[in-house]
Amino acid sequence: MALIGRAAASSALRRWSCAAERLVQHSQRRLATVAVGISGGVDSAVAALLLKRQGHEVIGLHMRSWDVKDESVPEGEMSCVEKERHDAERLCRHLGIGFHEVDFVREYWSLVFEPFLQSYRHGTTPNPDVACNRYIKFDLFHQHALSLGAQHVATGHYARLRRDERTGRMQLLKAVDESKDQSYFLSCVQQQALPQVIFPLGGLPKVEVRRLAREAELHVASKKDSVGICFVGKRRFGRFIAEYLECTSGPFVCVETGMTVGTHRGHPLYTPGAKARIGGLAEQEDRKKWYVVAKSAQENTVYVCLGADHRALKTSALLTDTPSWVAGDAPDALRLANESVLRCQARVRYQQPLNACEVRLSEDRLDVAFEQPIDYVAEQQVLAMYDGEVCLGGATISQRLENVMPLEGVQIHG
Ligand SMILES: Nc1ncnc2c1ncn2[C@@H]1O[C@H](COP(=O)(O)OP(=O)(O)OP(=O)(O)O)[C@@H](O)[C@H]1O
């Protein structure tokens, strides 16, 4: 009897001490208040759900970065901006977390959208998502989230963070689900924001994120992933850009022959590497096969070639503007040795396979040589550099070098 009593008492004690331990861990974790960027989509909602389950005090922060006035919405329909806000608020209510809003419409316009338009005017192809992450989400938005009393700021980005044992700085890593990896868009984010950042989805496959959303009965569980540039919403890009930039028709010129092979509807509507869809040609087959090589804004000319494998679409070397290193400084290979060369991998587009390259610093710019020529390099897009799974940083491409242009003297820079 006494034995049974002692066993029961000690098991009760064990249960109690486990419960107490859980309570202590729980209350310690509760000390962290995490502001989650709630977009109205499934990823950030699941990020908030997971943080809440871990015991954090979670608040939802929705940002308005685009004015309803700048969306043409059919009568009686809700604009994209309003729909996202509505979904974000409903999600916070469902998750039982506070809902906060912040307006960065003006800042987004001047730091992201104006430079985006300017770049298009000059005949180049910018990346507004990289600029948005650097100047808005991981700077102004981040600071605002901290000013609300949060110690951490989380987003639904697919990427991971790790502290570098040697330097003590934060490293940006690719997501485990490579098909969703967003480190490319984060490659120009600055080190100072990263110690407070959490990416709860970096280790999860997207299918698991959707499953968690369904299990938690989030109304956005089956909502489509956002594709393309966020402010364009569901509109066709051509129609959208034509509202802001003058698009006048001009010639499509074949880089091989120098001959005009069709008429384009305005150079801003075309991106190097994309199909040109030249109309007016008799052969349907040919129409399918023209690709944009380059553009000249000055001459309002779009240069094209026949076939996706044409050597005019390949680039083996390029120059960039001043790079942005996630660690804050350039990697040791570029800083410490004379004649220093960084051997790494790089991509020039979201989800492009990584390409081996050599990077040299020339003044404060990068001179990049690829082991094999790569496809579809567009000026003003971002080059993101990697050492295995670590994203080292990014830089805006200022010039394609050694791209094969069979037609001597074709001037492609606007
Ligand atoms: N309007 C917004 N307000 C607050 N945070 C935002 C907003 N838009 C995006 N974010 C944050 O940035 C992350 C990445 O944004 P992105 O536009 O790539 O959306 P996404 O991958 O489709 O994610 P989601 O499914 O959450 O919309 C989001 O998961 C979210 O945390």
TrEMBL record:
<comment type="function">
    <text>Catalyzes the 2-thiolation of uridine at the wobble position (U34) of mitochondrial tRNA(Lys), tRNA(Glu) and tRNA(Gln). Required for the formation of 5-taurinomethyl-2-thiouridine (tm5s2U) of mitochondrial tRNA(Lys), tRNA(Glu), and tRNA(Gln) at the wobble position. ATP is required to activate the C2 atom of the wobble base.</text>
</comment>
<keyword id="KW-0820">tRNA-binding</keyword>
<dbReference type="Pfam" id="PF20259">
    <property type="entry name" value="tRNA_Me_trans_M"/>
</dbReference>
<dbReference type="InterPro" id="IPR046884">
    <property type="entry name" value="MnmA-like_central"/>
</dbReference>
<keyword id="KW-0819">tRNA processing</keyword>
<comment type="similarity">
    <text>Belongs to the MnmA/TRMU family.</text>
</comment>
<dbReference type="InterPro" id="IPR046885">
    <property type="entry name" value="MnmA-like_C"/>
</dbReference>
<protein>
    <recommendedName>
        <fullName>tRNA-5-taurinomethyluridine 2-sulfurtransferase</fullName>
        <ecNumber>2.8.1.14</ecNumber>
    </recommendedName>
</protein>
<dbReference type="GO" id="GO:0005524">
    <property type="term" value="F:ATP binding"/>
</dbReference>
<keyword id="KW-0067">ATP-binding</keyword>
<feature type="domain" description="tRNA-specific 2-thiouridylase MnmA-like central">
    <location>
        <begin position="239"/>
        <end position="305"/>
    </location>
</feature>
<keyword id="KW-0808">Transferase</keyword>
<dbReference type="GO" id="GO:0061708">
    <property type="term" value="F:tRNA-5-taurinomethyluridine 2-sulfurtransferase"/>
</dbReference>
<feature type="domain" description="tRNA-specific 2-thiouridylase MnmA-like C-terminal">
    <location>
        <begin position="317"/>
        <end position="397"/>
    </location>
</feature>
<dbReference type="GO" id="GO:0000049">
    <property type="term" value="F:tRNA binding"/>
</dbReference>
<dbReference type="GO" id="GO:0002143">
    <property type="term" value="P:tRNA wobble position uridine thiolation"/>
</dbReference>
<keyword id="KW-0547">Nucleotide-binding</keyword>
<dbReference type="Pfam" id="PF20258">
    <property type="entry name" value="tRNA_Me_trans_C"/>
</dbReference>
<dbReference type="InterPro" id="IPR014729">
    <property type="entry name" value="Rossmann-like_a/b/a_fold"/>
</dbReference>
<keyword id="KW-1015">Disulfide bond</keyword>
<dbReference type="Pfam" id="PF03054">
    <property type="entry name" value="tRNA_Me_trans"/>
</dbReference>
<dbReference type="InterPro" id="IPR004506">
    <property type="entry name" value="MnmA-like"/>
</dbReference>
<dbReference type="InterPro" id="IPR023382">
    <property type="entry name" value="MnmA-like_central_sf"/>
</dbReference>
<keyword id="KW-0694">RNA-binding</keyword>
